[in-house]
Every structure is written in structure tokens, then in C-alpha cells.
């Protein structure tokens, strides 16, 4: 299945590794684009482009502080991703339950040796 060319949804926006890097940096708090660009080894226009996409899908908010514009994480935008990933919770719980049963069987077998 061909991937959509749009970045208008959160899944496409976070598919780009540099955008995930930006989100990771913003977990620590608001930062200006110049700091983000410098830390990630990007040009400022490149970082601004990624921030615009993240802002458009609701993952980043910005505010003006003096002459700077500060960008911050808006984790509410991750709800669709969290809801989607949560659909796999039963799969992981079942896998962990089977693994736990296997480990308990191994422990029991060693005690009986």
C-alpha cells in the first residue's frame, strides 16, 4: 500500500525521524527554533519547516517571548497515536502472560532436578 504524501495527520508527521527528535527535545520544555536546529544539526529553515508540520497536526504549540518564538510540546496531539497503540495492549499482555508461564515452568523444572 502506497504511503500518503500528506503530513496532515499525526501519524505521517511523526514518521519523519527528525520530527520525532524535535518532539523528544521538547519534552524537557519550551525552546526556540535556533536551539533546536543547533542541537539537531539542522539549518534553522529546516527546523522551522518541521516545526510547522508538527504545529499543524497539533503536536507543538508556539508563543512569542520578546523577540523569540518558543516552541513547546502539546502532548494532547498524541492521543490518536496512543489510542492506536493501545489497541495492541491485549496482544502484549497475552505475550507477557505466556512468557511468565514459560519462566515459571523453567523454575519448577530446575527445582525438580
Automatic annotation (TrEMBL):
The keyword DNA-binding applies. Keywords: DNA-binding. Residues 1-93 form the HTH arsR-type domain. CDD domains: HTH_ARSR. InterPro entries: ArsR-like_HTH, HTH_ArsR_DNA-bd_dom, WH-like_DNA-bd_sf, WH_DNA-bd_sf. Gene3D superfamilies: Winged helix-like DNA-binding domain superfamily/Winged helix DNA-binding domain. GO terms for molecular function: DNA binding. It holds the Pfam family HTH_5. PANTHER family: SLL0088 PROTEIN, TRANSCRIPTIONAL REGULATORY PROTEIN. This is DNA-binding transcriptional ArsR family regulator. The lineage of its organism: Bacteria, Pseudomonadati, Pseudomonadota, Alphaproteobacteria, Hyphomicrobiales.
